[in-house]
Automatic annotation (TrEMBL):
Subcellular compartments: Cytoplasm
Pathway participation: Amino-acid degradation; L-kynurenine degradation
Biological role stated in the UniProt entry: Catalyzes the NAD-dependent oxidation of 2-aminomuconic semialdehyde of the kynurenine metabolic pathway in L-tryptophan degradation.
Native species: Conger conger (Conger eel)
Top-level taxonomy: Eukaryota, Metazoa, Chordata, Craniata, Vertebrata
Any one GO molecular function term: aminomuconate-semialdehyde dehydrogenase activity
Residues of the active site: E248
EC numbers on record: 1.2.1.32
KW Nucleotide-binding (keyword) present: no
Keyword Transport assigned: no
UniProt entry keywords in alphabetical sequence: Cytoplasm, NAD, Oxidoreductase
Name by which UniProt lists this protein: 2-aminomuconic semialdehyde dehydrogenase
Length: 481
């Protein structure tokens, strides 16, 4: 693992190409969101650096792809061991780089990053291919799967190492080699992860390093997690090469709370689902539809609970939330609250209502959990992804109305349903336009099962079998005997 600099000097990151750190001539600043100060300098890679990384990945492919899944699995386990052994260093770095609370990094980001490697090291051993017999033609057919080649992986800033390893692990487990480009805003933990030579990491911005990867003719596959707007550009720029794309995009996730819900459980979980990681999780709840008979009680109790969701210094063990990723993002999120107010929305807590008390040094991009009511479904706050600690609460009458309004957005990533009526839970879950529906819970994930969105929330699914299919090419062979 590369040496971390002390607090007085900035880290200067280097690309990781062909198993070696390679300096880059140009850099961009990356900030500590809690102080607003420069934390590190990230390579500003472009076509030349991406070209070198693709070449290294191509050279590593014949050896890596010819190894057995079990042999490749051993390398994945080693990576997981390394992350586990340095969990605290990784968690501190992730918290400083992204602004997130250290407790979240320690209990979610970093353990899951290690688990991603362990999970795919094991799951790759259990896939089978298909076989079919056509006796009347004296023929049998079967399928074989092979790695695709050099996989291009592009990830966002909100769960930096977690989402990057969610791509690297299945890609290399299936025998591909990789060129990965993490977000330019959160590159440190990817740089700390001492990956094997089959994983090449180029740092830099989307329009330069990211686009060079997307437009590279020898990268047949792109797995992307990020915004819907960027996905459109990636789709366009990869079209001339007919690349295979997996797109995991934004969300505008509803919670549907029926009058028979267990309100204690529902409120505690919905506060967590709305505000965890500063609301900067694609699966965060941002529209809460509450059955009218319990709406006043829900709103009152939800606002009280939101006020208890402590925003503070990220390194403080007692903070649930830290700072938002950047000044620009904070301004964008605040802009939505102002817009809601201008349209007659009522802000019950958080932004503009409650004061944040932080030590002098922490002049970064903090914002309190904010709850808004009295907004129309058509308003931008109810339609667009805010990706911050803001959620809207509105009443509904009846199951059909709730489902129709929940579906009334461009996105379709996830949803939660709160009811004790088992029939309703199944009906509503079936009716919701979303890739994932949680009922009476949130964020419980079996990695074997598909993850992904519908509508503007994405194309494709990831998970044990889905990732294996995405990262391999299938061939059907017919043999006449
Ligand atoms: P973003 O789209 O701005 O950036 C994501 C990545 O794409 C970064 O590495 C960026 O450098 C790169 N990029 C930007 N422009 C590019 C281009 N033209 N070509 C190639 N690469 C380019 O997204 P973000 O702001 O980093 O992340 C937040 C978004 O990610 C939100 O919309 C959130 O919902 C979404 N997200 C989705 C999931 C999911 O699993 N569905 C998970 C996390 C985040």
């Amino acid at each position: 693992m590369p040496k971390m600099a002390d607090n007085r000097t900035h880290l200067i990151l280097e690309n990781y190409i062909g198993g070696k750190f390679v300096p880059c001539a140009r850099h961009i600043d990356s900030y500590d969101p809690s102080t607003g100060e420069v934390y590190c300098r990230v390579p500003d890679s472009d076509t030349e650096e991406v070209e070198a990384a693709v070449k290294a990945a191509q050279e590593a492919f014949p050896d890596w792809s010819s190894r057995s899944p079990a042999e490749r699995g051993k390398v994945l386990h080693k990576l997981a061991d390394l992350i586990d052994a340095h969990l605290e260093e990784f968690a501190q770095a992730e918290s400083k780089d992204q602004g997130k609370a250290i407790t979240f990094a320690r209990t979610v980001d970093i353990p899951r990053s290690a688990y991603n490697f362990r999970f795919f090291a094991s799951s790759i051993l259990h896939h089978t291919t298909d076989c079919s017999q056509m006796d009347h033609l004296g023929c049998m057919s079967y399928t074989v799967r092979s790695p695709v080649g050099v996989a291009g992986l592009i990830s966002p800033w909100n769960l930096p190492l977690y989402l990057l390893t969610w791509k690297i692990a299945p890609a290399i487990a299936a025998g591909n080699t990789v060129v990965a480009k993490p977000s330019e805003m959160t590159s440190v933990t990817a740089w700390m992860m001492h990956a094997p030579g089959v994983v090449n990491i180029v740092f830099g911005t989307g329009p330069r390093a990211g686009d060079a990867l997307v437009s590279h003719p020898d990268v047949p596959l792109i797995s992307f997690t990020g915004s819907t707007a960027t996905a459109r550009v990636i789709t366009e720029h990869s079209a001339p090469y007919c690349k295979r794309l997996s797109l995991e995009l934004g969300g505008k996730n509803p919670a549907l709370v029926f009058q028979d819900a267990d309100l204690d459980e529902c409120i505690a979980t919905t506060v967590r689902s709305s505000f965890s990681n500063q609301g900067e999780i694609c699966l965060c709840t941002s529209r809460i539809f509450v059955e009218r008979s319990i709406y006043p009680e829900f709103l009152k109790r939800f606002v009280e609970a939101a006020r208890q969701w402590k925003t503070g210094v990220p390194t403080d063990n007692g903070s649930y939330n830290g700072a938002l990723i950047s000044k620009e993002h904070l301004e964008k999120v605040r802009g939505y609250v102002k817009l809601a107010q201008a349209e007659g929305g009522q802000v019950h807590c958080g932004e503009g209502v409650d004061a944040l008390d932080l030590p002098e040094r922490y002049r970064g991009f903090f914002m309190l959990p904010t709850v808004i009511s009295d907004v129309a479904d058509a308003s931008r706050c109810m339609q667009e992804e805010i990706f911050g600690p803001v959620t809207c609460v509105v009443p509904f009458d009846g199951e059909d109305e709730a489902v129709r309004r929940a579906n009334g957005v461009r996105y379709g990533l996830s949803a939660t349903v709160w009811s004790r009526d088992v029939g309703r839970v199944h009906r509503v879950a079936r009716g919701l336009q979303a890739g994932l529906v949680w009922t009476n819970c949130w964020l419980i994930r079996d990695l074997n099962l598909p993850f992904g969105g519908v509508k503007d929330s994405g194309i494709g699914r990831e998970g044990a079998r889905d990732s294996y299919h995405f990262f391999t090419e299938v061939k059907t062979i017919a043999v006449k005997h």
